[in-house]
Amino acid sequence: MRFIRRNDKTHNKQLKEAAYRTYVRPQVEYCSTIWHPWQKHLTHRIVQRSAARYVQNDYHYTSSASNMLRELKWSTLEQRRNQSSLTMLHKIHNKQVNVDHSHLTTTRNNKFLIPHSKTKQHMNSFFPRAIRLWNELTTEINDAPTVPAFASGLNKLLFSRAGYAS
Q1: In the 3-class helix/strand/coil scheme, how is the chain assigned residue by residue?
Q2: What is the pLDDT along the chain (166 residues), one digit of tens a residue?
Q3: Is residue 154 within 8 Å of 141, Cβ to Cβ?
């Protein structure tokens, strides 16, 4: 983020946002489906907040980065990681990705039983974390026949929860 801020002197908000989406966010989200930082000191929240201040060109200490994120209508990095994890679980469940999931048990309403965890590391690993998120979804979303239909239903749900108009 600092490299972009140092080398891009434009005041064009769209150009700044495009630079963040092109150069910074992919680096932060790389492998985030599997590597999901559940410990607070490992999260990249500060990067997104810094990017919002940069795009809005508002560095005043009384300015709220959370309000800037809402104004920009950016979903948080955590929301994006959750969406990515749910999409991956949908692909695994529908055998679109070759990942062994024979250890997972489904219930009658297409929910999964959460695997027992003895440690926080396992509890926050991919399958238990994604299953907890999956079980909160409606049956209509879980039963979506294709990935685009699943993603569309998931987007509508996440945007309605975040308070944005879909």
Answers
A1: CHHHHHHCCCCCHHHHHHHHHHHHHHHHHCCCCCCCCCCHHHCCHHHHHHHHHHHHCCCCCCCCHHHHHHHHCCCCHHHHHHHHHHHHHHHHHCCCCCCCCCCCCECCCCCECCCCCCCHHHHCCHHHHHHHHHHHCCHHHHCCCCHHHHHHHHHHHHHHHHCCCC
A2: 777 777 777 778 888 888 888 888 787 767 666 666 665 655 566 778 888 888 898 889 899 988 998 898 887 778 888 888 899 999 998 889 888 888 888 887 778 888 888 888 788 888 898 999 999 998 889 889 999 999 999 888 876 665 544 3
A3: yes
Model's pTM, two decimal places?
Answer: 0.69
Q: Answer yes or no: are the C-beta atoms of 126 and 36 closer than 8 Å.
A: yes
CB-side neighbour CA atoms (13 Å) of 20: 20
Q: What angle do CA 104, 160, 25 make, to 5 degrees?
A: 75
Residue identified by tokens 């569309």 is 152
